[in-house]
Design brief:
The chain is of the alpha+beta class. It is 43% helix and 18% strand. The strands form three sheets. A six-stranded antiparallel beta barrel has the order 3-7-4-9-11-8. It has a four-stranded antiparallel β-sheet with strand order 5-13-15-12, with no helix packed on it. Strands 1-2 form a two-stranded antiparallel ribbon.
């Protein structure tokens, strides 16, 4: 780990002129305040001026901070990864405060910030190493590297480069009170390696990790490494809570490793006096880690509290849910979206419909309630908070497995629903996008869901028009139900379509054709027999 010197130097040599340095301090602290303000106020730090013996609001930082807050969206950051951003923001805050105190002449405060930087980096390194060991023991790293040779090379190489550069900084170099490193010869070699603009430098390694986190890299078939890890964890058949905890640990590992890389890159730039570039690296760290947080967070969401059901997609049910199906066949007929792009789990024909359902039969006390919006789900027990009960009648048939509340016999199947219309459907709600799912439409448009593409489908069930209470939007007549299904999936997901059995229509010409063929066969057989007598 970095080791501090016991002395406080009476004079501090600056690598750049005071004018350029103060410009850098202003820019650096502007970005630092931006990062901190996005996460939360840090007690004891945000109130004091970071510029000792200077004007109260240098460069309009307070006004800039207010502007940054005004631009924040409610869902811009996820509380699921808030701890990661707090760690990163604390380190960046201390780096900024350290520089301002050094250049402002406050030697005692510089010493305090110097020690805080070392402590923060030490804690971060321990956490990153602990997570790495945990996911390595579980076999996740090995399976990731076996996904593809290109992925193994690019991902493994980038991870190792960042770890090596950070390890040299934290175990072989000492950072002095004025921000320089000793021993000087090793420090110069380390700085040169970090600042390389080739594949060996920090810039390219962090670019690779960001691209793989966001799915913008060609490795893993263009999927995010988070999606790939999520798929690997699903094969291990873990409880849902353990699955999410492990995925969260991997997200933390990836983000905090990059945070270490950005701090090392920033300090290397400071050794060379590249103040403008250092400020740009601060902005980039804030932007890219914020972007990754927004992308990763939905993978960590759990399904809301309560017991309920959803129509089953062709991709199956979320892990841990119960499954069942209805087969409608008594006295009904069915039609569907004309382009054939239907994705219910089951099969369709003109006179028979089989439809699957996914049922959440146990409620978690740790999850939030369903968010306000305009949509319907299937009832199982009591409707979750905020929903209103309704029911619809369909052509009769049979059931297997676990299905929504209602009743079933050969004449009629009744299905119970829970619906709500207490929010704007154009305002995205938060639900887990890891697995494709359906909601039912209740208004004129599908409810938007954060981090997903939405595809609208419809099925018309003819033969029963009964409905009661608050039910999904319905364009059916007195003897039919036409319901609209909203399918949600991650961007770029390709889903199988529902099996559609199209009846073979026999034309009037076919019987004559068959007769002709039979005559030809018989004549040929007689000719053959005559030739053998």
């Amino acid at each position: 780990l970095c080791r501090s010197h016991a002395y406080i130097p009476s004079t501090i040599a600056l690598p750049v002129t005071s004018k350029v340095t103060m410009k850098f301090v202003l820019v650096l602290l502007f970005v630092t305040v931006a990062v901190v303000s996005v996460v939360q106020d840090i007690p004891g730090k945000s109130e004091a001026s970071p510029f000792p013996r200077q004007e109260k609001d240098p460069g309009g930082l307070k006004q800039a901070r207010g502007n940054i807050r005004d631009k924040r969206g409610v869902k811009e950051l996820s509380t699921e990864l808030l701890g990661v951003l707090q760690s990163v923001s604390t380190i960046l805050f201390n780096v900024g405060a350290f520089i301002s105190n050094v250049f402002g002449g406050n030697v005692y405060e510089a010493h305090q910030r110097h020690q805080e930087i070392l402590n923060s980096l030490s804690d971060l390194k321990k956490k990153v190493n602990d997570i790495y060991e945990a996911i390595t023991d579980l076999g996740i790293m090995t399976e990731l590297l076996h996904e593809k040779q290109l992925a193994a090379h690019l991902y493994g190489d980038s991870i190792q480069k960042v770890r090596n550069m950070v390890d040299t900084f934290q175990t072989r170099l000492n950072m002095t009170e004025n921000g320089t490193f000793v021993p000087e010869e090793l420090a110069q070699e380390w700085v040169r390696t970090v600042l390389l603009q080739t594949s060996e430098g920090m810039n390219q390694a962090l670019n690779n990790l960001h691209d793989m986190a966001m799915g913008s890299s060609p490795v893993f078939d263009g999927r995010s490494i988070i999606e790939t890890t999520d798929a690997i964890l699903r094969t291990k058949d873990l409880p849902n809570s353990e699955h999410r905890a492990l995925l969260k640990s991997f997200c933390e590992y990836l983000m905090e490793l990059q945070a270490q890389g950005y701090v090392a890159w920033l300090l290397a730039l400071m050794q060379r006096g590249y103040t403008d570039q250092a400020a740009e690296v601060m902005r980039r760290a804030d932007s890219k880690l914020r972007e990754q947080n927004s992308f990763m967070a939905p993978f960590l969401y759990g399904w809301p509290a309560g017991t309920y059901g959803l129509p089953k997609t062709t991709e199956g049910c979320p892990p841990g849910w119960e499954e069942g199906q209805y087969t409608h066949k008594s006295g009904g007929s069915y039609s569907w979206k004309h382009d054939g792009q239907v994705h219910i789990n089951g099969s369709l024909s003109n006179n028979t419909l089989t439809q699957g359902y996914c049922m959440q039969t146990t409620s978690s006390d740790t999850e939030d309630n369903w968010p306000p919006g305009t949509y319907c789900i299937l009832k199982s027990g009591e409707c979750p908070e905020g929903f209103t009960f309704g029911k619809i009648g369909f052509p009769g048939g049979t059931k297997t497995g676990v299905v929504p509340d209602g009743s079933v016999d050969s004449d009629r199947i009744e299905i119970d629903y829970c619906c709500r219309d207490d929010g704007d459907p154009s305002t995205p709600i938060t639900l887990p996008p890891r697995h494709p799912f359906f909601l039912l439409r209740i208004g004129q448009e599908c409810q938007k869901v954060e981090g997903t593409d939405v595809h609208e489908e419809w099925i018309e069930y003819k033969g029963n028009g009964y409905r009661d209470g608050k039910t999904p939007y319905n364009e059916g007549g007195e003897k039919s139900q036409k319901l609209f299904y909203c399918l949600y999936s991650s961007a770029g997901t390709n889903l199988q379509t529902t099996i559609i059995a199209t009846p073979i229509k026999v034309s009037a010409a076919q019987p004559q054709t068959a007769k002709t063929a039979l005559i030809v066969v018989c004549v040929a057989a007689l000719w053959f027999l005559q030739g053998t007598v």
